[in-house]
Amino acid sequence: MDAWRDIRLKARACHIKALGVAQGDRRGRALVDAALKDADLELRYCQPGEVFGVGVHGSFERADGLVYVVCGQDPMDEVVVIAHEIGHSELHHDPSNEVRNVQAQLGGDPIDTGAGVVEGYSPRERKEVQADTFAGEFLCPADWLRTEIVNAARRPSEVADELGLPYGLVLNQAIRALLLPPLREPDERDPAVLIELDESQKQAATWDGGPLLVDAGPGTGKTRTLVHRIGHVLGQGALSGSILALTFSKKAAEEMRERLSESHRDAAIEMWVGTFHGFGLEMVTKWPGRLGRSADVKILDQTAQLALLEANLSRLPLRHYQNLFEPAYELVYVLQAISRCKDELISPEDYLTEARAALANATPDEVEAAEKAVEVGEIYKIYQDALREADAVDFGDLVMLPAELMAEHEDIRVEFQQRFQHILVDEYQDVNFASAQLLQLLAGGCQDVWVVGDQRQSIYRFRGASPANVERFQTDFSGSKVSLTSNYRSGGPVVRAFSEFSRHMAADPGAAANWGAFRGELGEVSLTVAGTVAEEAAAIRDQIESLRASGIAYRDQAILARSHLTLSRITDVLEQLGVPLLYLGDLFERDDVRDLLSLVAIDAEFGGIGLVRVAQLPEYAASKDDAIVVIRWSQDQGHTVYEALARLDEIEGLSETGRAGLRKLAEHLAGMGPTTSPWALLTTWLFERSSYLRPLLEAPDAQAQQRLIAIYQLLKVCSEQHDVEGHADLRDPGRKALLERIRRIEALSQDSRYRAVVSEAADFDAVRVMTIHGSKGLEFRGVHLPALATRYMPTNRQWVRCPPPSTLGKLTMQKEDHDAEEECLFFVGLSRARDHLCLTRAERYTQVNASASKFLDTVSRHLQMRRFSGLVPAPKAARVWSPLAPRDGYDERELDIYLRCPARYRYEVLDGLRGGRDSSAYLRFHRCVHRTMGWIEQQVEKGQPSSPDQALQELACQWAEHGPGGHGFEGYYRAAAETMVVSIARLIASETGTYDREPWSVQVGGRTIIYTPDRVVIGPDGRVRVQRIRTGRKTKFEPENRVYALIRKGAAQRYPGRSISVEAYYPATHESVPVVAKNDDKLLREYAEAITAIERGEFPAIREARQCPNCQCYFICGA
After folding, report:
1. pLDDT band at 531 (very low <50, low <70, confident <90, very high)
2. Fewer beta carbons under 10 A from the terminal one: N or C of the chain?
3. Contact indicator for 1073, 1066 with CB cutoff of 8 Å
4. Closest by alpha carbon to 824, among 448, 504, 553?
5. What pTM value is reported for the model?
6. Which of 132-136, 302-306, 766-770 has the lowest mean pLDDT?
7. Cα 1050 from chain centroid (whole Å)
8. Cβ neighbours of residue 472 under 8 Å, at least 6 residues apart?
9. Helix, strand or coil for residue 645?
10. What is the per-residue burial (b if ≥16 Cβ within 10 Å, else e) of 153-187?
11. Each residue of 395-423: pLDDT tens digit?
12. Cis link prior to 794 (omega < 30° from 0)?
């Protein structure tokens, strides 16, 4: 359901009425005047500050029927202010509403980022955004605007001028009109049947016997019962301001607010309804001084937390969690460990005490884990100090700090206990230990603590949720328990299936789990077995179409899976079969989104290689070679790519088609420059200049609509994304900031919030696709659960990156917790279905056979068993590659690139593209160390050995010329480089012999591989020692690197008959590790096979979660 659809439909109805009153005059001024007249509202003007405070543009006073507008505004802004206030008069019931912002917004649900994850929209902010949405649709309806743009080929700027409206408002309407599905009128349904509370619900809602736990299984009407509970409390004479309603998620809190505003409109204004984190934020901002913060305290999301740690890298005692290439790769896991500490109210001091005690008593096998725990504790302490210094808190602090405030300050505790006499908590099974402790402190001796939860639906243990809170409730609060007994969601077969499964769950083995099916005997539960993933997807297609034929629309069906990997495997085939899907997958790796990010990357990232993808778009039809010619010319001449596009006549070597296409692109980018924001660039290009959208708008298929929704989601990111300090959105910072942020989001696997499709796209008649986690709280008439096979459901437990001290084992998910959570996930998936529950599995997902999930045994007697025997799609045609001529030699570094990703080899080695991100700080640091090492060796050969101090002086010279000067990590890298250079200087001073710094030509498989060793030391006795310098930390996988096989082969060819040793040398710890031969023939074959594949012209892209986002060709990949 699109929560904004009703607002837009109501605005359209008002527009049609006003248009009639205005006798067809569509101009904004005519429409608002007509609407004011029709609603019998009076318009009054006032001087700034005369009636309202500074910054107010207008107001609506309901009792008097007055719309105030402040004089002196731009006439177009004035029209928007009036339309905004008309929106308040139509949508809301507040006695007064003020307009403080006239900047056009996309509206809709915000993408969760920064503090928004905690706060979302406040009730007042939500109403303001709703009034903005109303104003846009009233003044310029999206359905009419779509016709003007698509059929009449008009631009938003032309329409804005004609209607006398701000361009930003019309642009946002154009974005909605073209990218979102057309608004669907509400379904005609029979009048809703009013269902009275059943006996169990009535008992829970009217309970007066002290604290109560309501055991609410899926579909048992917990929200309705909660709303009636509040009605009962109010009916008993309670003041609305004495009611506190808390829940775990922002989504659940907003749903609770909406339900309460419908049932108890006036009282809802005074109640405190929100999340534990939102409540904690109120406490932090009310008493910041007692927490060492100011009134301007900042809330840091994970990205900002990483930035804070990175800003303090030189303070961190990194060893096990050191990653010189990208510190965040390890620090992200440390932050997760710190977050879990806060979930459990464990301070840095407490953690360190336990960790040091564990280290003191560790056996040899336990030392490494104990050292890691101490390192995490030390980082935790420094991180908390850094938060105080930065006047900031993170999400964990928003519960931990208020709990500490309540425990340590009696005046605060008494104030809240006296203020809230009636406390309600939803989704209690998802609450963590810290939240439960905060609740106990809030409650004090309160006898009206009413919580609702279901241990069987506890699917957030991995982020701290503690279902044990449900078990302890009756003890912690001396309370009672009531179970809701009827399921109002599902038909009998579905209810029996998940009831049967629940009776065998570890989460609540003592539960009755025997819900009655209020809707009676309808629907079916089936299991279809297929041979392969393609067959399984085809079986799901058949089920989807069968349900649709029976009257269940695509939009009322969902495919739910344990992981996005499973979803991507299934949806790849379903899209090939033409099934309409609402699933974006990884937003930033979609082809359509990469087209736009490549456009943003032109001149935003070093080298301008975004042009390679953009130039080949059908509208421009230039070749990759044409784009490369322009890029090289710009680099040779010292111009930007934008400047080169404006001077195409000076560039030789372009094809006629390419020159014409690039000239058109130059026209489309005219006026753009270094300060053009991502928002301005993309919206101008998409809606004013290019024809990129037209093929998608004219295509009748669902995939085109899905692509349009993906583009909408990207624009939403551009319009709402905040910097790490939370001050400015990305309409203001440069394009490079956006691209860097996206790279980091992808590299750290923080893209989950961008996968969730915005609710504004809900009118798209397509099958919903999501993880089981994402389906929590939702229901569908038809649910398809694929991949019910061993290792896919349940999954295997993941290893612990930051092992805590054994005395704090609760900080990690133990095996029994993991197994219980997997059961809960299956239970949640089963219970999302209203009518039809279609389970499927394949017998083979990879080259290995997959047995049936053990969960199926429990529900087998409730399943209609089927074997798929239908048609499957033909495999995609294999790509035809063009062979390349053999080369005389292949550089080992280039072959390493190929073996990591053949597509990257093609871009970098064959096409000669150098760009994307600037040379990383790590690579510059690495080069400085290697250059200094070479200098030290040369000094020895000259008979002038260098002391460590002289080596450091040379490093300083190298650093000044080649180092990462000005980079945020410079101090961190400089300190590491100095440590390494001193180690290398001492190593070289201890050596005798000569050095071989010449490249090697190694013969492998009839081909020559060029390799230059880091160090070759030839001793006086002829012994040869070859060292590979590793500036990172030591890993157990290092000896498995194929390059050591090549080194051994090359050394044997170059120094026949001599004694040869091969080592990995770690200058950070002054440690040399011998690397002995192991599987050399196999490893060398990898090089030979790579050369053969290169000569066949095979350059497929290989997806790797960490490497891809750091590739300079990330955004153009596939072009």
Report:
1. very high
2. N
3. yes
4. 504
5. 0.90
6. 302-306
7. 46
8. 436
9. helix
10. eebbeebbeebbbbbbbbbbbbbbbbbbbebeeee
11. 999 999 999 999 999 999 999 999 999 99
12. yes
